[in-house]
Amino acid sequence: MIPRLAPGRRGVIVAALGTSLTVSWASSYYIPAVLAGPMAASFSLSPVWVFGAFSMAMIVSAGIGPVAGARIDGFGGRGILMLSNLVFAAGLVLLAVAGSPLILFAGWAVIGIGMGIGLYEAGFATLAGIYGKEARGPITGITLIAGFASTVGWPLSGLMLASWGWREACLGWALIHLCLALPLNACLPKGTEAITRAETPAENGPPPSRMALALLAFVFAATWFNSTAMAAHLPGLLQEAGASTAVAIAAGALIGPAQVAARMLEFGLLRRFHPLTSTRLAAAAHPVAAVILVAVGGPAAYVFAVLHGAGNGILTIAKGTLPLALFGAAGYGRRLGWLNAPARILQAGAPLIFGTALTEWGLSAIWLTAGVGLAAMAALLLLKRQ
User: Where is the Major facilitator superfamily (MFS) profile domain (predicted)?
Assistant: First the structure.
């Protein structure tokens, strides 16, 4: 029998959950960048078809998220997270054995189910069930670890692709889910410790207003649109600003470290402040970076990447900490699923929308994401602390 961790072993729980989520992100969100080309070529398709299947997976995850969150609220997150590893493994195996584009799309649809029950939202809800309103620190902790998913995932996918092929790479990730992530999730506390303690409605405050929920859902959708648009098109955007290819790539490489550095700042200095304060600062980072990039041009590529990455790093944490601080732990998982559903859907279209804008407008396309960022900032200013 796998030993279970006690809630008091906070550091070990954060390390276990952060590592399992790293596997989940690396084997879903980050594999198309490496495997889409060879995956499509084996079926004589354009890579656009694989990215389309991935977009479909994100839409599937948006529909599954609220259901998974409600389940975590009632029964804890350990079982849902363990199920996600089995679902991810099944989807990856389907990709590996796909003999036709139809099976390929089916494999991505299964992975979409895994994304809906096994990424940050499920991890955040699990921690809220363990620690209640004290989950802010652990939530930051798991994002610090899983923030390295691309750093780990892209090279490992590339290594497996070069050594064995894309189908075997998918099988390799399936085995990692079964042999590493699944046992780590099995070690977690059930995740109902804070739920079963006497948390009365008075302790959680009044029910959140529809306006507050709508504003926060808009903030998440807007900021994830920008994050996904930049992830897909940042080098091209920086080159439109006058940066060389080498500078654009080097600047893009700074986003990951900037995200982690900002999360460490959130874990230290900014944790003294309400999450609404740090989220407002983070939302302002991309519009400020956009103004600097347009004003200065290519030499500002590094500044743009650092500011955008830092803001994005804190906004990722805010997806978990801000709803908890504003609305409390009761019903947190289901609420988080609904709040992030629009973000998943908009995220699926972000690369195409911003790519079209970049082609038509050049550097001026940055005003699209800057405007979206300012709208998110305005929505955050309308939100009030509970």
Answer: 13-386
The distance from CA 386 to its chain's CA centroid, rounded to whole angstroms, is 26
Q: Do 215 and 173 belong to one domain?
A: no
306 and 322 belong to one structural domain: yes
Whether residues 171 and 223 share a domain: the answer is: no
* Per-residue confidence (pLDDT) for residue 202, from 0 to 100: 42
Band (385; pLDDT cuts 50, 70, 90): low
The Cα 12–Cα 10 span in angstroms is 6
Instruction: Assess whether 190 and 300 both reside in one domain.
Output: no
Same domain, 141 and 237: no
Domain hosting 243: range is 201-382
